[in-house]
Amino acid sequence: MNDTPLSVALLGSGTVGSQVARILLEDAEELTQRVGAPLRLIGIAVRDPQAPRDYAAPAGLYTTDADALIDAADVVVELTGGIEPARTRILRALRAGKHVVSGNKALLAREGAALQRAADASGAQLSYDAAVAGAIPILRPLRDSLAGDQVERVLGIMNGTTNFILDAMHTTGADFDDALAEAQRLGYAEADPTADVEGHDAAAKAAIVASLAFHAEFTLEDVHCEGITGITAADVAAAQAEGCVIKLLAVCERLEEGVSIRVHPTLVPNEHPLASVRGAFNAVFVHSRDAGQLMFYGPGAGGAPTASAVMGDLVSLARRVVLGGPAVPDFSYAQLPAVGPEDVVSSYTMGLQVKDRLGVLAGMAQVFAEEGVSIRTMHQTKHGPHRGAGQPETTIRVVTHRAADRRVRATIEKLRGLDAVDAITSVIRVED
Amino acid sequence: MNDTPLSVALLGSGTVGSQVARILLEDAEELTQRVGAPLRLIGIAVRDPQAPRDYAAPAGLYTTDADALIDAADVVVELTGGIEPARTRILRALRAGKHVVSGNKALLAREGAALQRAADASGAQLSYDAAVAGAIPILRPLRDSLAGDQVERVLGIMNGTTNFILDAMHTTGADFDDALAEAQRLGYAEADPTADVEGHDAAAKAAIVASLAFHAEFTLEDVHCEGITGITAADVAAAQAEGCVIKLLAVCERLEEGVSIRVHPTLVPNEHPLASVRGAFNAVFVHSRDAGQLMFYGPGAGGAPTASAVMGDLVSLARRVVLGGPAVPDFSYAQLPAVGPEDVVSSYTMGLQVKDRLGVLAGMAQVFAEEGVSIRTMHQTKHGPHRGAGQPETTIRVVTHRAADRRVRATIEKLRGLDAVDAITSVIRVED
């Protein structure tokens, strides 16, 4: 046991920061045993020391001078979120050789490689397990447990808000707007839900996961991102009729030409372990060459769960510091291009509204055949004349076999050009 | 990049060892990049160099002289299993400061603490993630990711053979003997299935998991163990009628007085994530104070999956050795007693055969009341006279509220003493 304490500076005291302060202060004795030296919280940088908080640390710990706090610390825990001032502060710490624990997915997805280089240059440790999937240990298994395996594919439900909304749409038959309003009422969605429902939050996490899974540098810009705002109650009903649920999946996939990273709504068969991930839970499914199929499941957000992940990083790095060990950098050695969605091969389901005319199906089938997109199933439902006027209409649902994205896009363009096709109401990928 | 290779000695070339040899030889270039120096397989200690193997390494690598091989290596990978000569060889390596990766659950569950002390004394690393749940990364998350949290309870399906048998009993209605025979025919159970069906294999894993989860030393002797040989088709049918499945669970639980570690058949409600773990898959469910509920799921055995876990340990420790870092010992600092099953509080389901007489239920209820075991539900089914002779019989199924094990045992003893009770056909715990 070493008596020299490690000084910890906490930046931010929101939902997660408050819980980290609580654990550091209330579990001090136990943490000392686990680390081999005391972990001393020397201050909490906040904008307003008087603001109310989930957990109130002794008033003397709060400060508005983040830089002075950083300079006095051995380890900096950054939980403010956003790009600035988090970026400048983390760089200040790393350049001075101070270890950093961060849960800032937006920053890490954009500048993770630059931050890692700053850490490597000074021998500091940069840890960020809390940035992806809250408390679910996913980054450490990818980096360490699967370090001798070949990851082929990662499929993740990495955003609790969208999973809650989609789950509600499946359970109640509600349309997107109503399910979103309910999620907002219950505190599962923010007043401005854009980052969640447009998939940006999941996309940031996907970039971080892909970097660790494939040992290469990827950023948010490498991620193709589609949100769930276009998903209708009719799409959900059609998915259920196919024995599937619609999930917003983050997919990181090793292809021959490189790595595809994408976030999009996906039909997942009911038997797939990801189909039963309910409410605001997250889950990450990993396919690897030797380990086969692994799944990690748990709360993807929340103050205490995310604080648990932050503390795991903090205790692990503190233990190593006490033992006199060097930082263990991430090992991004591979030069792998991110490939665009156009080369990705998936099955698709499409909904079309067509005129009830002779030869419509034959004309459509011709378009699919021209583009080499093979049809697995085609269902049609006839409706009477719409609102009592005009011609009768037909709804068609097509499920394709696996086809390259650009082939499917070309097919859709051509279908739109057919006189008998009034509208293409949905195009959703299917996970086989 | 360091050019000095790390020499790896492989002890054993069975199902897992063959796959480790394959990965070391076929992925040599990729592994060099990941580690920062070459990992060189210098030899494979076997009993018979001529024996056929799943993967044939160059003949020159096989040797019968394990000691000479150990002495020439930097890292020893022990995959022979069993207590001796594995124990003596691991100690030889650790005492000479050589790092050891092992997947030997039987040995680690018995002598893990002694081996760890040998490693600590010489500054060697002892890693054994492959010993529990095959490829599923569970030990590393417990040790590192949850290092700042308080684990309260771990529930695991940690034996694929018994899960396969129980799953078959649920799916086909088969009795235990038939399901076991089918598992043996398909290669999921060994000719002598004792270690699996009596729960010994799961018990060894539970001891290792409990030690890491609660930061204290536990051995196989601390585990209360009941197997599945007594589970009947009638028990399975009764469980299904209750909306449950029967699983062989390893339970590691923090109680006020200490830690309870046990393996026993358990009724798990259909909605519980562990209920849907099918066939030979494993899963580990962790409840912790801050992270909440986490689940880890994957293949619990098999050559390639277990080799993936071995390689994860090997690459992680090799990376640290290349960086010049010290070994990171496990941190068993807590002095926690293992408590016997008699203090554990659970719900139970019981099956009884009773005579169809007036007052039988009242007499039984009186016994439960005397022992303070509260009855949640009681169902009775009347049968005609057994084999056309004697009195008509009644089957009674009782589900209790939570009660201490010793209270339930006392209740059972008293019930056996009742003249109207012919037999107690089953007593199974229920996971709420």
UniProtKB/TrEMBL annotation, chains A, B:
Enzyme Commission identifier(s): 1.1.1.3
PROSITE patterns, per database record: ACT, HOMOSER_DHGENASE
Keyword Amino-acid biosynthesis: yes
Pfam families xrefs: ACT (PF01842), Homoserine_dh (PF00742), NAD_binding_3 (PF03447)
GO biological process: methionine biosynthetic process; threonine biosynthetic process
Positions of NADPH binding: K105
Record SUPFAM superfamilies: ACT-like, Glyceraldehyde-3-phosphate dehydrogenase-like, C-terminal domain, NAD(P)-binding Rossmann-fold domains
Signal peptide: none
Residues where L-homoserine binds: E190
Co-factor requirement: a metal cation
Cross-referenced InterPro entries: ACT-like_dom_sf, ACT_dom, Asp/hSer_DH_NAD-bd, HDH, HDH_cat, HDH_CS, NAD(P)-bd_dom_sf
Keywords, sorted A to Z: Amino-acid biosynthesis, Methionine biosynthesis, NADP, Oxidoreductase, Sodium, Threonine biosynthesis
Protein name: Homoserine dehydrogenase
Native species: Rothia kristinae
